[in-house]
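Page 42, continued from yesterday. The earlier attempt failed because a stray header line got pasted into the input along with the sequence. Redoing it now with the clean sequence only.
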Amino acid sequence: MPRSENRTPQDLRPVTFEIDVAPHALGSVLIACGNTRVICAATVEDFVPRWMKDQNVTGGWITAEYSMLPYSTLSRKPRDIAKGRPDGRGTEIQRLIGRSLRAAVDLEALGSRTLWIDCDVLQADGGTRTAAITGATVAVYLACRKLLAEGRVKRLPIRQRVAAVSVGVVGGEVLVDLDYLEDKEATVDMNLVLTEQLQFVEVQGSGEEATFSPEELSAMLEAGRTGIGRLLELQAEALAL
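This time it went through. Structure tokens are written below.
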């Protein structure tokens, strides 16, 4: 089937970053990947989780929270508080975001602080977790710049930026950056998180009632690396690096 925006199999959807959208956050961005839109905001508190003190772990920490707003999907999505329990999918995604950002940030340079990352999905059309990671990286970079400018850290506590993209097999073809309709039809679904050096942070892949060959896996990894390379370029442009 034709792809949105008449894309080729290797093309990303149009990606934009609107920075400083949340004035009370230390760093924030609205990332749009096609019709998927996520606000990512970074705030800092000058303490760390108790377990770090109990275990004499030095440096800072990063914690992420992820939620899909009720109006982000075609049918209203109830808030977790209304259900009385956290959403399992959301919990898994926020752990992924936290792991990804901890690969990006120098926690020792951050000092004894907790960096909170809040990712709120305004509109969902596939790839919300990968958009959240890519956008959160920009928000964290902005926040760390401000910490350095304010003299709260001695050096920029960034090791390297990270970005993420979805890849999958749809109709026997490897596609990059799947939208919702493509994701529904995918026989294989994969999410990749890579660093600036295109080193892997995380690989999440599974067959949807199907299997995939080593050759398909290699093709998906290569296509994903190319897509993430482009996302890293767009991050750099947004941050004026």
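Notes: The first strand starts at residue 15 and ends at 19.
Reminder to self: strip header lines before submitting.
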